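User: I'll paste a sequence; please echo it back and then give the predicted structure.

Assistant: Echoing your sequence first, then the prediction.
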Amino acid sequence: MDIAVLVKAVPDLDRLRYDPKLRTVVREGTELFLNPFDLRALRVALDLRRAGESVTVVSLGPRAARDPLRDAPALGVDRTLLLSDPRFAGSDTLATARALAAVLRTLGHDLVLGGAWTTDSETGQVGPEVASLLGVPVLSGARSIVRDGEGNALQVTLDTLQGWARYRAAPPLLITVGEKISKAAKVAPDDRARVPDGAVEVLGLDGLALSPAHVGAEGSPTSVRWVTDDSPSRSPYVLRDGTPEERVTRAAEALRAILRDSAVAGVRPFENLTSLGEGHRVLVLVTDSSGRLEPSALALLSEVRRSLPGHWPSAVWVGGPPSVEESALVRTAGALDGDLVPVTPLPTDSRIVSAAFEGAMDRHPEAAAGIFLSDSFGREVAGQLAARRSLGLTGDAIGVRAEASGDLLWSKPSFGGRTLAGILSRTRPSLATVRPGVWDLGSTDASSGAWGWKALPAISDRTPLVPESVGTEVGPGTPSLEGRPVVVAVGMGVGGPSGVAALAPLLSRWDAALGATRRVVDAGWVPRRFQVGLTGRSPAPRLGVLLGVSGSPNHLVGWKRARALLAVNRDPEAPVFRDVDVGIVGTLEEIVPLLGDAIAPLLGR
Protein backbone atom coordinates (compact mmCIF):
# COMPACT_ATOMS: atom_id res chain seq x y z
CA MET A 1 0.00 0.00 0.00
CA ASP A 2 1.66 3.19 -1.20
CA ILE A 3 0.64 6.36 0.61
CA ALA A 4 0.48 9.99 -0.53
CA VAL A 5 0.26 12.87 1.94
CA LEU A 6 -1.14 16.28 0.96
CA VAL A 7 0.85 19.05 2.64
CA LYS A 8 0.65 22.84 2.54
CA ALA A 9 3.27 25.41 3.52
CA VAL A 10 1.55 28.12 5.59
CA PRO A 11 2.78 31.43 6.99
CA ASP A 12 3.57 32.10 10.63
CA LEU A 13 0.31 33.72 11.71
CA ASP A 14 1.97 35.66 14.51
CA ARG A 15 4.15 37.50 11.98
CA LEU A 16 1.50 38.36 9.40
CA ARG A 17 0.71 42.02 8.75
CA TYR A 18 -2.50 43.48 7.42
CA ASP A 19 -2.26 46.37 4.92
CA PRO A 20 -5.39 48.54 5.38
CA LYS A 21 -4.76 50.46 2.14
CA LEU A 22 -4.32 47.44 -0.09
CA ARG A 23 -6.80 45.45 2.05
CA THR A 24 -4.58 42.41 1.84
CA VAL A 25 -2.49 40.25 4.12
CA VAL A 26 1.21 40.93 3.63
CA ARG A 27 3.07 37.60 3.32
CA GLU A 28 6.40 38.92 2.09
CA GLY A 29 9.18 38.30 4.56
CA THR A 30 7.02 35.84 6.50
CA GLU A 31 8.61 32.47 7.07
CA LEU A 32 6.68 29.44 5.84
CA PHE A 33 6.04 26.29 7.87
CA LEU A 34 4.35 23.02 7.06
CA ASN A 35 0.74 23.04 8.21
CA PRO A 36 0.73 21.30 11.62
CA PHE A 37 -2.34 19.22 10.80
CA ASP A 38 -0.65 17.93 7.64
CA LEU A 39 2.39 17.05 9.74
CA ARG A 40 0.12 14.86 11.86
CA ALA A 41 -1.01 13.11 8.68
CA LEU A 42 2.63 12.65 7.69
CA ARG A 43 3.46 11.04 11.02
CA VAL A 44 0.52 8.64 10.59
CA ALA A 45 1.63 7.76 7.04
CA LEU A 46 5.16 6.90 8.19
CA ASP A 47 3.73 4.74 10.99
CA LEU A 48 1.44 2.88 8.54
CA ARG A 49 4.19 2.25 5.95
CA ARG A 50 5.60 -1.27 5.75
CA ALA A 51 8.75 -2.58 4.13
CA GLY A 52 8.70 -2.14 0.36
CA GLU A 53 5.98 0.55 0.49
CA SER A 54 6.43 4.24 -0.22
CA VAL A 55 5.27 7.55 1.23
CA THR A 56 5.11 10.54 -1.12
CA VAL A 57 4.43 14.13 -0.08
CA VAL A 58 2.59 16.36 -2.55
CA SER A 59 2.23 20.11 -2.10
CA LEU A 60 1.12 23.09 -4.17
CA GLY A 61 2.65 26.47 -3.46
CA PRO A 62 5.29 29.06 -4.30
CA ARG A 63 8.96 28.19 -4.80
CA ALA A 64 9.59 29.48 -1.29
CA ALA A 65 7.79 26.35 -0.04
CA ARG A 66 10.81 24.24 -1.03
CA ASP A 67 12.61 25.07 2.21
CA PRO A 68 9.91 23.92 4.68
CA LEU A 69 9.24 20.89 2.48
CA ARG A 70 12.77 19.69 3.24
CA ASP A 71 11.22 18.43 6.47
CA ALA A 72 9.56 15.61 4.53
CA PRO A 73 12.72 13.84 3.26
CA ALA A 74 14.37 14.55 6.61
CA LEU A 75 11.60 12.52 8.25
CA GLY A 76 12.10 9.59 5.86
CA VAL A 77 9.60 10.34 3.09
CA ASP A 78 10.50 8.54 -0.14
CA ARG A 79 9.56 11.35 -2.53
CA THR A 80 8.60 15.01 -2.12
CA LEU A 81 6.82 16.89 -4.92
CA LEU A 82 6.12 20.62 -5.03
CA LEU A 83 3.66 21.82 -7.68
CA SER A 84 4.83 25.34 -8.39
CA ASP A 85 4.09 27.43 -11.46
CA PRO A 86 3.10 31.09 -11.94
CA ARG A 87 -0.07 29.81 -13.59
CA PHE A 88 -1.16 28.26 -10.26
CA ALA A 89 -1.26 31.73 -8.65
CA GLY A 90 -4.70 32.68 -7.38
CA SER A 91 -5.98 29.10 -7.18
CA ASP A 92 -8.92 28.66 -4.84
CA THR A 93 -9.63 25.34 -3.14
CA LEU A 94 -11.21 23.72 -6.21
CA ALA A 95 -8.39 24.78 -8.56
CA THR A 96 -5.91 23.54 -5.96
CA ALA A 97 -7.76 20.23 -5.67
CA ARG A 98 -7.67 19.80 -9.46
CA ALA A 99 -3.89 20.17 -9.53
CA LEU A 100 -3.38 17.82 -6.59
CA ALA A 101 -5.73 15.23 -8.07
CA ALA A 102 -3.92 15.40 -11.41
CA VAL A 103 -0.57 14.46 -9.88
CA LEU A 104 -2.16 11.82 -7.62
CA ARG A 105 -3.62 10.10 -10.68
CA THR A 106 -0.11 9.92 -12.11
CA LEU A 107 1.33 8.53 -8.90
CA GLY A 108 -1.44 5.95 -8.52
CA HIS A 109 -1.21 5.82 -4.72
CA ASP A 110 -3.65 3.66 -2.77
CA LEU A 111 -4.17 5.80 0.32
CA VAL A 112 -4.18 9.61 0.47
CA LEU A 113 -3.84 11.40 3.80
CA GLY A 114 -3.97 15.06 4.75
CA GLY A 115 -4.84 17.41 7.57
CA ALA A 116 -8.50 18.13 8.16
CA TRP A 117 -7.80 21.85 7.62
CA THR A 118 -5.01 24.39 7.33
CA THR A 119 -4.20 27.20 9.73
CA ASP A 120 -4.41 29.94 7.10
CA SER A 121 -7.60 29.37 5.10
CA GLU A 122 -9.34 26.98 7.54
CA THR A 123 -11.79 25.68 4.92
CA GLY A 124 -11.44 21.92 5.39
CA GLN A 125 -12.72 21.34 1.85
CA VAL A 126 -9.66 20.45 -0.26
CA GLY A 127 -9.65 16.84 0.97
CA PRO A 128 -13.28 16.11 0.00
CA GLU A 129 -12.80 17.91 -3.32
CA VAL A 130 -9.72 15.83 -4.16
CA ALA A 131 -11.57 12.64 -3.17
CA SER A 132 -14.45 13.53 -5.46
CA LEU A 133 -12.12 14.24 -8.39
CA LEU A 134 -10.34 10.91 -7.81
CA GLY A 135 -13.65 9.05 -7.40
CA VAL A 136 -12.70 7.56 -4.00
CA PRO A 137 -14.47 7.62 -0.61
CA VAL A 138 -13.45 10.20 1.98
CA LEU A 139 -13.38 10.04 5.77
CA SER A 140 -12.78 13.32 7.59
CA GLY A 141 -11.39 14.20 11.00
CA ALA A 142 -9.80 10.88 11.97
CA ARG A 143 -8.65 10.52 15.57
CA SER A 144 -7.21 7.02 14.99
CA ILE A 145 -6.13 4.91 11.99
CA VAL A 146 -5.13 1.28 12.59
CA ARG A 147 -3.99 -1.08 9.83
CA ASP A 148 -4.76 -4.79 9.74
CA GLY A 149 -1.89 -7.01 10.80
CA GLU A 150 -1.51 -8.66 7.40
CA GLY A 151 -3.71 -6.80 4.93
CA ASN A 152 -4.49 -3.26 3.84
CA ALA A 153 -7.87 -2.80 5.50
CA LEU A 154 -8.00 0.13 7.90
CA GLN A 155 -9.96 0.74 11.07
CA VAL A 156 -10.65 4.49 11.14
CA THR A 157 -12.20 6.29 14.11
CA LEU A 158 -13.60 9.75 13.42
CA ASP A 159 -14.65 12.55 15.74
CA THR A 160 -18.33 13.43 15.33
CA LEU A 161 -20.63 16.06 16.81
CA GLN A 162 -22.01 13.43 19.19
CA GLY A 163 -18.79 11.57 20.00
CA TRP A 164 -17.08 9.16 17.63
CA ALA A 165 -17.73 6.73 14.78
CA ARG A 166 -15.56 3.76 13.81
CA TYR A 167 -15.29 2.64 10.19
CA ARG A 168 -13.64 -0.31 8.47
CA ALA A 169 -12.50 0.53 4.95
CA ALA A 170 -9.92 -0.47 2.39
CA PRO A 171 -8.05 1.61 -0.19
CA PRO A 172 -8.48 3.41 -2.50
CA LEU A 173 -9.43 5.96 0.14
CA LEU A 174 -8.75 9.52 1.24
CA ILE A 175 -8.62 10.31 4.96
CA THR A 176 -8.12 13.65 6.66
CA VAL A 177 -6.86 13.66 10.23
CA GLY A 178 -7.68 15.85 13.21
CA GLU A 179 -5.33 17.19 15.83
CA LYS A 180 -6.05 14.43 18.33
CA ILE A 181 -4.59 11.63 16.21
CA SER A 182 -0.94 12.31 17.08
CA LYS A 183 1.63 14.98 17.72
CA ALA A 184 2.88 16.78 14.64
CA ALA A 185 6.06 15.34 13.15
CA LYS A 186 9.05 17.58 13.87
CA VAL A 187 12.51 17.92 12.34
CA ALA A 188 15.65 19.21 14.02
CA PRO A 189 17.31 22.13 12.17
CA ASP A 190 20.50 20.11 11.63
CA ASP A 191 18.55 17.26 10.02
CA ARG A 192 16.80 19.70 7.70
CA ALA A 193 20.10 21.31 6.72
CA ARG A 194 21.50 17.94 5.63
CA VAL A 195 18.72 17.42 3.06
CA PRO A 196 20.15 17.99 -0.46
CA ASP A 197 18.58 20.63 -2.69
CA GLY A 198 17.30 18.09 -5.19
CA ALA A 199 15.31 16.18 -2.57
CA VAL A 200 12.29 18.40 -3.22
CA GLU A 201 11.20 17.95 -6.84
CA VAL A 202 9.46 20.92 -8.46
CA LEU A 203 6.77 20.14 -11.03
CA GLY A 204 5.13 22.78 -13.21
CA LEU A 205 1.75 22.81 -14.91
CA ASP A 206 3.21 21.40 -18.14
CA GLY A 207 3.99 18.20 -16.27
CA LEU A 208 0.32 17.60 -15.48
CA ALA A 209 -2.54 16.44 -17.66
CA LEU A 210 -4.44 19.60 -16.81
CA SER A 211 -5.58 22.63 -18.77
CA PRO A 212 -4.35 26.08 -17.68
CA ALA A 213 -8.03 27.11 -17.76
CA HIS A 214 -8.70 24.83 -14.78
CA VAL A 215 -6.14 26.31 -12.37
CA GLY A 216 -5.06 29.69 -11.09
CA ALA A 217 -7.39 32.67 -10.93
CA GLU A 218 -8.89 31.75 -14.31
CA GLY A 219 -9.85 28.27 -13.15
CA SER A 220 -11.11 29.31 -9.72
CA PRO A 221 -14.88 29.62 -9.33
CA THR A 222 -14.43 31.87 -6.27
CA SER A 223 -12.49 35.08 -5.80
CA VAL A 224 -11.64 37.29 -2.84
CA ARG A 225 -13.36 40.67 -3.25
CA TRP A 226 -12.08 42.26 -0.07
CA VAL A 227 -10.07 41.55 3.03
CA THR A 228 -10.42 43.50 6.25
CA ASP A 229 -8.78 43.35 9.64
CA ASP A 230 -10.92 41.33 12.02
CA SER A 231 -8.69 41.23 15.07
CA PRO A 232 -10.47 41.27 18.43
CA SER A 233 -11.91 44.73 19.07
CA ARG A 234 -13.03 44.43 22.69
CA SER A 235 -11.93 47.01 25.27
CA PRO A 236 -10.94 44.96 28.31
CA TYR A 237 -11.94 46.14 31.78
CA VAL A 238 -9.85 44.07 34.19
CA LEU A 239 -10.65 44.09 37.93
CA ARG A 240 -7.61 43.41 40.09
CA ASP A 241 -8.29 45.27 43.32
CA GLY A 242 -10.86 45.05 46.09
CA THR A 243 -12.49 42.13 47.81
CA PRO A 244 -13.84 39.24 45.69
CA GLU A 245 -17.37 40.55 46.33
CA GLU A 246 -16.42 44.03 45.12
CA ARG A 247 -14.74 42.70 41.97
CA VAL A 248 -17.74 40.53 41.08
CA THR A 249 -20.20 43.39 41.70
CA ARG A 250 -18.25 45.76 39.46
CA ALA A 251 -17.98 43.06 36.78
CA ALA A 252 -21.76 42.56 36.80
CA GLU A 253 -22.30 46.32 36.43
CA ALA A 254 -19.96 46.46 33.45
CA LEU A 255 -21.62 43.49 31.79
CA ARG A 256 -25.09 44.98 32.26
CA ALA A 257 -24.32 47.82 29.84
CA ILE A 258 -22.80 45.48 27.25
CA LEU A 259 -25.69 43.03 27.34
CA ARG A 260 -28.37 45.69 26.96
CA ASP A 261 -30.37 45.32 23.72
CA SER A 262 -28.60 42.12 22.68
CA ALA A 263 -31.66 40.01 21.93
CA VAL A 264 -31.55 37.93 18.75
CA ALA A 265 -33.69 39.38 15.97
CA GLY A 266 -36.56 37.31 14.70
CA VAL A 267 -36.95 36.26 11.09
CA ARG A 268 -38.85 38.30 8.53
CA PRO A 269 -42.35 37.31 7.44
CA PHE A 270 -43.01 36.94 3.72
CA GLU A 271 -45.19 39.78 2.50
CA ASN A 272 -45.53 38.89 -1.16
CA LEU A 273 -44.81 35.29 -2.05
CA THR A 274 -45.62 35.82 -5.73
CA SER A 275 -42.61 38.11 -6.10
CA LEU A 276 -40.13 35.41 -5.09
CA GLY A 277 -38.63 33.83 -8.20
CA GLU A 278 -36.65 30.60 -8.43
CA GLY A 279 -33.47 32.64 -8.73
CA HIS A 280 -33.88 33.68 -5.10
CA ARG A 281 -34.22 30.17 -3.68
CA VAL A 282 -31.51 29.05 -1.22
CA LEU A 283 -31.23 25.30 -0.70
CA VAL A 284 -30.30 24.21 2.84
CA LEU A 285 -29.34 20.66 3.85
CA VAL A 286 -31.14 19.98 7.14
CA THR A 287 -30.33 16.29 7.74
CA ASP A 288 -27.31 14.31 8.96
CA SER A 289 -25.82 11.03 7.74
CA SER A 290 -28.50 9.04 9.58
CA GLY A 291 -31.24 10.73 7.56
CA ARG A 292 -32.70 12.58 10.53
CA LEU A 293 -33.00 16.28 11.32
CA GLU A 294 -29.74 17.97 12.32
CA PRO A 295 -30.94 20.61 14.83
CA SER A 296 -27.92 22.84 14.25
CA ALA A 297 -28.97 23.26 10.61
CA LEU A 298 -32.22 25.01 11.54
CA ALA A 299 -30.31 28.24 12.23
CA LEU A 300 -29.19 28.27 8.59
CA LEU A 301 -32.83 28.57 7.50
CA SER A 302 -33.43 31.45 9.90
CA GLU A 303 -30.35 33.38 8.80
CA VAL A 304 -31.38 33.32 5.14
CA ARG A 305 -34.61 35.00 6.18
CA ARG A 306 -32.71 37.57 8.26
CA SER A 307 -29.81 38.41 5.96
CA LEU A 308 -31.12 38.02 2.42
CA PRO A 309 -34.17 40.19 1.66
CA GLY A 310 -36.01 38.82 -1.35
CA HIS A 311 -34.59 35.32 -0.91
CA TRP A 312 -36.11 32.36 0.84
CA PRO A 313 -34.73 29.15 2.36
CA SER A 314 -35.82 25.84 0.90
CA ALA A 315 -35.04 22.78 3.03
CA VAL A 316 -33.44 19.69 1.50
CA TRP A 317 -34.18 16.49 3.44
CA VAL A 318 -32.07 13.45 2.56
CA GLY A 319 -33.03 10.21 4.31
CA GLY A 320 -36.15 8.62 5.74
CA PRO A 321 -39.54 10.33 5.97
CA PRO A 322 -39.50 13.29 8.38
CA SER A 323 -41.74 13.08 11.40
CA VAL A 324 -44.52 15.60 12.01
CA GLU A 325 -42.39 17.21 14.73
CA GLU A 326 -39.31 17.44 12.47
CA SER A 327 -41.34 19.04 9.69
CA ALA A 328 -42.80 21.55 12.11
CA LEU A 329 -39.33 22.53 13.34
CA VAL A 330 -38.11 23.05 9.76
CA ARG A 331 -41.11 25.21 8.91
CA THR A 332 -40.94 27.24 12.13
CA ALA A 333 -37.22 27.94 11.56
CA GLY A 334 -38.13 29.70 8.34
CA ALA A 335 -38.26 27.25 5.42
CA LEU A 336 -40.87 28.12 2.83
CA ASP A 337 -40.88 24.66 1.26
CA GLY A 338 -38.74 21.56 1.03
CA ASP A 339 -37.50 18.70 -1.14
CA LEU A 340 -37.41 15.14 0.19
CA VAL A 341 -34.91 12.68 -1.31
CA PRO A 342 -35.49 9.16 0.10
CA VAL A 343 -32.28 7.15 0.62
CA THR A 344 -31.84 3.47 1.41
CA PRO A 345 -30.19 1.98 3.31
CA LEU A 346 -29.54 4.34 6.22
CA PRO A 347 -27.21 5.52 7.62
CA THR A 348 -25.38 6.47 4.45
CA ASP A 349 -22.19 8.30 3.51
CA SER A 350 -21.46 11.78 2.21
CA ARG A 351 -21.17 10.64 -1.42
CA ILE A 352 -24.81 9.55 -1.43
CA VAL A 353 -26.03 12.69 0.34
CA SER A 354 -24.05 14.83 -2.11
CA ALA A 355 -25.70 13.04 -5.04
CA ALA A 356 -29.12 13.48 -3.40
CA PHE A 357 -28.55 17.22 -2.91
CA GLU A 358 -27.51 17.37 -6.55
CA GLY A 359 -30.94 16.02 -7.42
CA ALA A 360 -32.55 18.92 -5.57
CA MET A 361 -30.28 21.31 -7.49
CA ASP A 362 -31.39 19.75 -10.76
CA ARG A 363 -35.00 20.39 -9.76
CA HIS A 364 -34.14 24.03 -9.02
CA PRO A 365 -31.48 24.91 -11.64
CA GLU A 366 -31.83 28.65 -11.01
CA ALA A 367 -31.34 28.43 -7.23
CA ALA A 368 -29.05 31.11 -5.84
CA ALA A 369 -27.14 29.03 -3.29
CA GLY A 370 -26.71 25.83 -1.33
CA ILE A 371 -25.76 25.92 2.37
CA PHE A 372 -24.39 23.15 4.60
CA LEU A 373 -23.19 22.86 8.18
CA SER A 374 -19.43 23.18 8.45
CA ASP A 375 -18.89 20.01 10.44
CA SER A 376 -16.95 17.07 9.00
CA PHE A 377 -19.98 15.60 7.29
CA GLY A 378 -21.21 18.91 5.82
CA ARG A 379 -17.74 19.73 4.48
CA GLU A 380 -17.59 16.34 2.80
CA VAL A 381 -20.99 16.77 1.16
CA ALA A 382 -20.31 20.33 0.00
CA GLY A 383 -16.74 19.65 -1.14
CA GLN A 384 -17.69 16.63 -3.25
CA LEU A 385 -20.62 18.49 -4.77
CA ALA A 386 -18.45 21.52 -5.59
CA ALA A 387 -15.84 19.35 -7.32
CA ARG A 388 -18.37 17.33 -9.28
CA ARG A 389 -20.30 20.36 -10.52
CA SER A 390 -17.38 22.87 -10.65
CA LEU A 391 -19.12 25.19 -8.20
CA GLY A 392 -17.68 27.91 -6.01
CA LEU A 393 -17.57 26.92 -2.34
CA THR A 394 -16.92 29.23 0.62
CA GLY A 395 -15.86 27.39 3.76
CA ASP A 396 -16.79 28.45 7.30
CA ALA A 397 -18.87 31.44 6.20
CA ILE A 398 -20.16 33.67 8.99
CA GLY A 399 -22.22 36.13 6.94
CA VAL A 400 -23.87 36.68 3.57
CA ARG A 401 -25.41 39.55 1.67
CA ALA A 402 -26.93 40.04 -1.76
CA GLU A 403 -25.07 42.35 -4.15
CA ALA A 404 -26.84 44.72 -6.56
CA SER A 405 -25.92 42.27 -9.34
CA GLY A 406 -27.88 39.53 -7.57
CA ASP A 407 -24.72 37.63 -6.64
CA LEU A 408 -24.26 36.51 -3.04
CA LEU A 409 -21.16 37.75 -1.22
CA TRP A 410 -20.04 35.48 1.62
CA SER A 411 -17.82 36.61 4.48
CA LYS A 412 -15.43 34.21 6.23
CA PRO A 413 -12.61 34.46 8.77
CA SER A 414 -9.07 33.40 7.86
CA PHE A 415 -5.52 33.50 9.20
CA GLY A 416 -6.58 32.40 12.67
CA GLY A 417 -9.45 34.88 12.79
CA ARG A 418 -7.21 37.88 12.23
CA THR A 419 -8.87 38.83 8.96
CA LEU A 420 -12.33 38.68 7.41
CA ALA A 421 -12.60 38.07 3.67
CA GLY A 422 -15.45 38.68 1.25
CA ILE A 423 -15.79 35.74 -1.16
CA LEU A 424 -17.74 35.92 -4.41
CA SER A 425 -18.57 32.93 -6.58
CA ARG A 426 -19.04 33.22 -10.31
CA THR A 427 -21.11 30.04 -10.37
CA ARG A 428 -24.79 29.58 -9.75
CA PRO A 429 -25.60 28.24 -7.31
CA SER A 430 -22.80 29.29 -5.01
CA LEU A 431 -22.12 26.94 -2.11
CA ALA A 432 -21.14 27.68 1.48
CA THR A 433 -20.56 25.86 4.75
CA VAL A 434 -21.38 27.51 8.08
CA ARG A 435 -20.01 26.46 11.47
CA PRO A 436 -22.60 25.28 14.00
CA GLY A 437 -23.47 28.08 16.38
CA VAL A 438 -22.35 31.01 14.23
CA TRP A 439 -25.92 31.82 13.18
CA ASP A 440 -28.87 32.00 15.56
CA LEU A 441 -32.13 30.12 15.37
CA GLY A 442 -35.23 32.27 14.95
CA SER A 443 -38.88 31.38 14.57
CA THR A 444 -41.78 32.46 12.40
CA ASP A 445 -45.36 31.52 11.76
CA ALA A 446 -45.32 33.27 8.41
CA SER A 447 -45.04 30.36 5.96
CA SER A 448 -48.30 30.52 4.06
CA GLY A 449 -50.17 27.99 2.00
CA ALA A 450 -50.13 24.22 2.34
CA TRP A 451 -46.60 23.49 3.55
CA GLY A 452 -45.19 20.11 2.59
CA TRP A 453 -42.33 18.13 1.12
CA LYS A 454 -41.90 17.52 -2.60
CA ALA A 455 -40.66 13.94 -3.06
CA LEU A 456 -37.78 13.42 -5.49
CA PRO A 457 -36.57 10.10 -6.92
CA ALA A 458 -35.12 7.79 -4.28
CA ILE A 459 -31.43 6.90 -4.18
CA SER A 460 -30.33 3.40 -3.27
CA ASP A 461 -26.78 2.23 -2.55
CA ARG A 462 -26.01 -1.29 -1.44
CA THR A 463 -22.45 -0.41 -0.39
CA PRO A 464 -22.51 2.81 1.62
CA LEU A 465 -19.50 3.57 3.77
CA VAL A 466 -21.13 3.39 7.19
CA PRO A 467 -19.65 3.06 10.68
CA GLU A 468 -19.32 -0.34 12.29
CA SER A 469 -19.91 1.25 15.66
CA VAL A 470 -20.61 4.67 17.13
CA GLY A 471 -20.21 6.13 20.57
CA THR A 472 -21.52 9.16 22.34
CA GLU A 473 -19.53 11.28 24.75
CA VAL A 474 -22.52 13.37 25.74
CA GLY A 475 -25.19 12.43 28.24
CA PRO A 476 -28.90 12.73 27.39
CA GLY A 477 -30.27 16.21 27.86
CA THR A 478 -26.84 17.88 27.90
CA PRO A 479 -27.23 21.42 26.49
CA SER A 480 -25.47 21.99 23.17
CA LEU A 481 -23.45 25.11 22.46
CA GLU A 482 -25.77 26.22 19.68
CA GLY A 483 -28.45 28.74 20.52
CA ARG A 484 -27.60 28.94 24.23
CA PRO A 485 -27.74 32.41 25.83
CA VAL A 486 -24.75 31.59 28.04
CA VAL A 487 -21.72 29.35 27.44
CA VAL A 488 -19.22 28.70 30.24
CA ALA A 489 -15.84 27.47 28.97
CA VAL A 490 -13.18 25.86 31.11
CA GLY A 491 -9.42 25.86 30.67
CA MET A 492 -6.71 23.83 32.35
CA GLY A 493 -6.95 26.21 35.31
CA VAL A 494 -10.16 24.47 36.39
CA GLY A 495 -7.92 21.74 37.76
CA GLY A 496 -9.44 18.53 36.44
CA PRO A 497 -12.69 16.58 36.03
CA SER A 498 -13.74 17.36 39.60
CA GLY A 499 -13.37 21.08 38.87
CA VAL A 500 -15.60 20.70 35.82
CA ALA A 501 -18.21 18.74 37.80
CA ALA A 502 -18.24 21.45 40.49
CA LEU A 503 -19.62 23.92 37.93
CA ALA A 504 -22.91 22.02 37.54
CA PRO A 505 -24.86 24.33 39.92
CA LEU A 506 -23.63 27.40 38.07
CA LEU A 507 -24.59 25.97 34.67
CA SER A 508 -28.04 25.11 36.00
CA ARG A 509 -28.48 28.54 37.61
CA TRP A 510 -27.78 30.29 34.31
CA ASP A 511 -29.27 27.64 31.96
CA ALA A 512 -25.81 27.61 30.38
CA ALA A 513 -23.94 25.18 28.15
CA LEU A 514 -20.43 23.97 28.87
CA GLY A 515 -17.49 24.69 26.56
CA ALA A 516 -13.79 23.91 26.76
CA THR A 517 -10.35 24.58 25.36
CA ARG A 518 -8.56 22.04 23.19
CA ARG A 519 -6.18 21.07 26.00
CA VAL A 520 -9.11 20.29 28.31
CA VAL A 521 -10.73 18.17 25.61
CA ASP A 522 -7.46 16.34 24.86
CA ALA A 523 -7.13 15.62 28.59
CA GLY A 524 -10.54 13.93 28.48
CA TRP A 525 -12.19 16.25 31.00
CA VAL A 526 -14.88 17.44 28.55
CA PRO A 527 -16.24 15.75 25.36
CA ARG A 528 -14.79 16.99 22.08
CA ARG A 529 -18.10 18.33 20.77
CA PHE A 530 -17.81 21.13 23.34
CA GLN A 531 -14.39 22.35 22.18
CA VAL A 532 -14.43 26.05 21.26
CA GLY A 533 -11.89 27.62 18.94
CA LEU A 534 -10.16 27.40 15.60
CA THR A 535 -10.56 23.63 15.37
CA GLY A 536 -13.79 23.46 17.39
CA ARG A 537 -17.07 25.31 17.65
CA SER A 538 -17.82 29.02 17.34
CA PRO A 539 -20.77 29.74 19.64
CA ALA A 540 -22.57 33.08 19.59
CA PRO A 541 -24.06 33.45 23.08
CA ARG A 542 -25.15 36.67 24.75
CA LEU A 543 -22.53 35.92 27.40
CA GLY A 544 -19.40 33.78 27.27
CA VAL A 545 -17.62 33.06 30.56
CA LEU A 546 -14.04 31.78 30.47
CA LEU A 547 -12.89 30.08 33.68
CA GLY A 548 -9.22 29.21 34.05
CA VAL A 549 -8.60 29.82 30.34
CA SER A 550 -5.09 31.10 29.57
CA GLY A 551 -6.04 32.85 26.34
CA SER A 552 -4.62 30.97 23.35
CA PRO A 553 -5.50 32.83 20.09
CA ASN A 554 -6.71 29.54 18.62
CA HIS A 555 -9.29 29.29 21.41
CA LEU A 556 -10.32 32.95 21.55
CA VAL A 557 -11.08 33.06 17.83
CA GLY A 558 -14.09 30.85 18.61
CA TRP A 559 -15.61 33.60 20.78
CA LYS A 560 -15.66 36.43 18.26
CA ARG A 561 -19.46 36.27 17.89
CA ALA A 562 -20.17 36.37 21.64
CA ARG A 563 -22.04 39.52 22.64
CA ALA A 564 -20.10 39.84 25.92
CA LEU A 565 -17.08 37.97 27.21
CA LEU A 566 -16.05 37.57 30.87
CA ALA A 567 -12.85 35.88 32.04
CA VAL A 568 -11.71 34.75 35.49
CA ASN A 569 -8.04 33.86 35.99
CA ARG A 570 -5.69 33.98 38.94
CA ASP A 571 -2.82 35.31 36.79
CA PRO A 572 -3.10 39.09 36.30
CA GLU A 573 -0.86 38.80 33.22
CA ALA A 574 -2.88 36.02 31.55
CA PRO A 575 -3.24 36.70 27.79
CA VAL A 576 -6.99 36.08 28.03
CA PHE A 577 -7.47 39.48 29.67
CA ARG A 578 -6.40 41.22 26.45
CA ASP A 579 -9.35 39.90 24.41
CA VAL A 580 -12.39 39.97 26.71
CA ASP A 581 -14.83 42.68 27.79
CA VAL A 582 -14.50 42.11 31.52
CA GLY A 583 -11.82 40.29 33.47
CA ILE A 584 -11.68 39.32 37.12
CA VAL A 585 -8.31 38.48 38.65
CA GLY A 586 -8.78 35.84 41.33
CA THR A 587 -8.98 32.14 41.99
CA LEU A 588 -11.95 30.17 40.74
CA GLU A 589 -12.59 29.03 44.31
CA GLU A 590 -13.19 32.59 45.53
CA ILE A 591 -14.89 34.08 42.45
CA VAL A 592 -17.15 31.38 40.96
CA PRO A 593 -19.43 30.97 44.03
CA LEU A 594 -20.18 34.69 43.85
CA LEU A 595 -20.88 34.82 40.11
CA GLY A 596 -24.12 32.82 40.08
CA ASP A 597 -26.35 35.30 41.89
CA ALA A 598 -24.53 38.38 40.58
CA ILE A 599 -24.89 37.53 36.89
CA ALA A 600 -28.28 35.76 36.95
CA PRO A 601 -30.37 38.99 36.97
CA LEU A 602 -28.62 40.13 33.79
CA LEU A 603 -29.85 36.95 32.11
CA GLY A 604 -33.42 37.20 33.37
CA ARG A 605 -32.87 34.25 35.71
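The chain has a mean pLDDT of 88. The domain at 232-262+472-603 is CATH 3.40.50.1220 (Rossmann fold).
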